[in-house]
């Protein structure tokens, strides 16, 4: 072999080797998982996660591992998305891929994958589309539901006057008010504030939400097969949820006995009619189990998240009486004392609107978001996320993103006000999540919050038995949910 042939062969081998290395490196880069801490067998990275403020702990980890990182929460790999840009890219720009729902066994031990909150595929699509259309038929997003909220606000004012300025825990009076709005749609009626069965249902909702947000509830979601065989307060979760399920089942039976297909009275009637229409369709997911799970989700979510937001909001106003006073001034200037608040008033009340938005941003009721799941193998920001991987799009990191909010860790209505005092929108305002899984009751919730907050402050001044500097507005529990400290408040007629 002459020198020229040998040199050519040598170059060919070198180029081939370089090409192979390049291909291997490219494949490795394409398929590599996001970075993250080294897990321990079985428990994964649990010892490295701050369970007393999980969302804050995950944000700290993102400072080390980047805005996309992996964790093993128990034996299961989870990908965490941190920061507005990353969460937006996933939930909005790649909404289909990140549109799956991750499992939460605390809820699914009763819901079993049905309904609109913890279902996937065709079950979710059919249930959500039907729910959106039916809620619209019953006035959600229209004048009809606004009148229902106004009516309930007047009932609430009567109950607050009955307290005669004495301090009390507002947890359940707020729950009754917001729950009655959704109850009038799904059950066809509201409840009196002294209805004992209604009180019991609301206590079950509140207790289960607190337990799911506790360390016991978190452990149940991570190790369900172990925890369901161990004693502890986590076993109360199923008990509470089954009481709610049984009540819904009872209401469905009552509706069945008096159903008029030509004149549906409520959401349950509409679903029963749909079941009958689709009974010959083998691919239909309109059946009794899905009806109960769908009503359960609407009843639970609309009650607990909004009542907790109200409770957190009034605690914040007790902390900052100067903000309360400025809201009083705007209300008196725009509406006076006689006019019942309506949705049109919101555009004329930029400060009140900004305060309510800031309450939602700061309280951040579901800081971890409800878990997502990728629907196929996904290349995202240079990493490979395998199909079926659980994803946590960290809402806390969006609502506290320093690139989007100038003073993210402090309560500041100025986040939603421009230099002229007008209301200023912010795309990072995502308390209802975003994308295909955004809360379908977002519009209803915003109406309720505005009209309840403004109605109360139009009629009452707030009083606490604590000095503002002694009021703690950090969450008492911060895991699945952010739950405020218990407190007492007095409503003093203006």
Automatic annotation (TrEMBL):
GO MF terms listed in the record are:
arachidonate epoxygenase activity; heme binding; iron ion binding; oxidoreductase activity, acting on paired donors, with incorporation or reduction of molecular oxygen, reduced flavin or flavoprotein as one donor, and incorporation of one atom of oxygen
One Gene Ontology term from the biological process aspect of the record? xenobiotic metabolic process
What residue ranges are annotated as transmembrane?
6-23, 291-318
At which positions is heme bound?
Answer: 439
Q: Where in the cell is it found?
A: Endoplasmic reticulum membrane; Microsome membrane
Q: Name one GO cellular component term.
A: endoplasmic reticulum membrane
Q: Give the main location.
A: endoplasmic reticulum
Cofactors demanded by this protein: heme
Q: What domain of life does the native source organism fall in? A: Eukaryota
Q: Which Pfam families match?
A: p450 (PF00067)
Q: Which UniProt keywords apply?
A: Endoplasmic reticulum, Heme, Iron, Membrane, Metal-binding, Microsome, Monooxygenase, Oxidoreductase, Transmembrane, Transmembrane helix
What's this protein's family per the entry? Belongs to the cytochrome P450 family.
PANTHER family reported in the protein's UniProt record = CYTOCHROME P450, CYTOCHROME P450 508A4-RELATED
Protein name, entry field: Cytochrome P450 2G1-like isoform X1
Q: Which gene encodes it?
A: LOC115479430
């Amino acid at each position: 072999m002459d020198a020229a042939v040998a040199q050519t062969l040598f170059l060919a081998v070198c180029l081939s080797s370089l090409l192979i290395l390049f291909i291997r490196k490219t494949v490795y880069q394409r398929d590599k998982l996001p970075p993250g801490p080294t897990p321990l067998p079985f428990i994964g990275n649990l010892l490295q996660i701050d369970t007393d403020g999980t969302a804050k702990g995950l944000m700290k980890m993102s400072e080390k591992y980047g805005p996309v990182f992996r964790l093993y929460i128990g034996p299961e790999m989870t990908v965490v998305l941190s920061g507005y840009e990353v969460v937006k890219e996933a939930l909005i720009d790649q909404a289909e891929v990140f549109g799956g729902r991750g499992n939460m066994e605390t809820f699914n031990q009763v819901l079993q994958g049905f309904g609109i909150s913890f279902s996937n595929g065709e079950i979710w699509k059919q249930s959500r589309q039907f729910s959106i259309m039916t809620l619209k038929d019953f006035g959600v997003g229209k004048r009809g539901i606004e009148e229902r909220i106004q009516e309930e606000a007047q009932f609430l004012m009567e109950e607050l006057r009955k307290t005669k300025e004495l301090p009390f825990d507002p947890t359940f009076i707020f729950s009754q008010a917001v729950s009655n709005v959704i109850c009038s749609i799904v059950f066809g009626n509201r409840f009196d504030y002294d209805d004992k069965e209604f009180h019991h249902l609301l206590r079950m909702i509140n207790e289960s939400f607190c337990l799911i947000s506790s360390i016991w509830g978190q452990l149940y979601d991570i190790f369900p097969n172990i925890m369901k065989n161990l004693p502890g307060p986590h076993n109360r979760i199923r008990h509470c949820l089954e009481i709610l399920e049984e009540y819904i089942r009872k209401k469905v039976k009552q509706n069945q006995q008096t159903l008029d297909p030509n004149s549906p009275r409520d959401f349950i009637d509409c679903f029963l009619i749909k079941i009958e229409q689709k009974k010959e369709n083998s691919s239909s997911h309109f059946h009794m189990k899905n009806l109960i799970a769908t009503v359960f989700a609407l009843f639970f979510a609309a009650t607990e998240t909004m009542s907790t937001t109200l409770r957190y909001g009034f605690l914040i106003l007790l902390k900052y009486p100067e903000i309360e006073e400025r809201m009083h001034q705007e209300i008196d200037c725009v509406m006076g004392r006689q006019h019942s608040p309506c949705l049109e008033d919101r555009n004329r009340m930029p400060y009140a609107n900004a305060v309510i938005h800031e309450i939602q941003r700061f309280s951040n009721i579901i800081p971890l978001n409800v878990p997502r799941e990728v629907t196929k193998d996904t290349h995202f920001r240079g990493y490979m996320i395998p199909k079926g991987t659980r994803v946590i799009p960290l809402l806390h990191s969006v609502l506290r993103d320093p690139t989007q909010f100038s003073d993210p860790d402090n309560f500041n209505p100025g986040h939603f006000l421009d230099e002229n005092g007008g209301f200023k929108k912010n795309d990072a305002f995502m308390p209802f999540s975003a994308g295909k899984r955004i809360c379908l009751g977002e519009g209803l919730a915003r109406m309720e919050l505005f009209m309840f907050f403004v109605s109360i402050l139009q009629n009452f001044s707030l009083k606490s038995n604590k000095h503002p500097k002694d009021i703690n507005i950090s969450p008492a529990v911060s895991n699945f949910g952010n739950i405020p400290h218990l407190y007492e408040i007095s409503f003093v007629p203006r």
